[in-house]
Amino acid sequence: MAHNLNETNGKISFASTQRAWHGLGQIVDSAMTSKQAIELAGLDYQVIKTPMLAKVRGAGKVVVPDHFATVRKDTNEVLGVVGRRYEIIQNQDAFVFFDAIVGQGQAIFETAGALGNGNKTFITAKMPSYVRITGTDDITEMYVVLTNTHDGSGSVIAAVTGIRIVCENTMRIALKNTVNKVAIRHTTNAERNLAQAHKLLGISNDYITKMNEAFNSLALKKITDAKAKQLIENLFYSEKNDSTRIKNIRESVLESYYSGIGQEKVVGTAFGLLNGITHYTSHVKEYKDADTKFENLLMDGASAKITDKAFELLLAM
Question: How far is CA 6 from CA 24, 33, 125, 155, 227, in A?
Fold first, then answer.
């Protein structure tokens, strides 16, 4: 199954406000509260950690030191093998992350589900605010996603993305196309760190409002071709300033500015130039591999620094 959604007692562990491509799960007419999402998506199961035993010939069952099995209580399925320091984060407790952003009991959840035998879960919430650029059809809805594992395969991931998660494939895509993300290890402070993760991500309705104001300010700032070219030259600089390589990069950035996706309505503005630069770094520039691209764009890499610098310079104009 490409979707890899969990099925328990004939129920698909997925709930959504829209019918997904796979046509499965529970579909509701409006955004869900955390209680509704947990129940409809079948996430209301508990996971426990129990010592691992090994069957040894002549000695019977013996405890395997520092190794534990994570077990789903409602089905008694073993989800994975973890170490002594591993702390379980129950599905219900993961929702405290969203409560810290928008408050308890608000209907913001768009999708929720479990994968495999319940060893992985995901939650997608749409923030009440969105970014809309004046004079364009450019509307960016802000989704906040959280993925959790119960098998020791990874951290809890909280991220901002433009993609609604409806299956395993879309979860992979969403986590590769994040605006920002935080990874929280399953250790003693996991729940406390999860409750504070929104601060690390810098997400809140106030944040979205400020971003909206900043982007619209850029959309109203006119910029000449000469200034656009000069700023690109300043951003994409090397000691060998006249090298063929650096000239080609600058030409590619300019091409992204004039002809990138959706640029026809914003060329000649500071917002259009910022879009052109990010189009180049995200879609035109070649990277060694997907991990290198992620590091460059999202983890304070060279491309991220260029975008941040461009944003600062354009706002200051």
Answer: 11, 21, 20, 20, 54
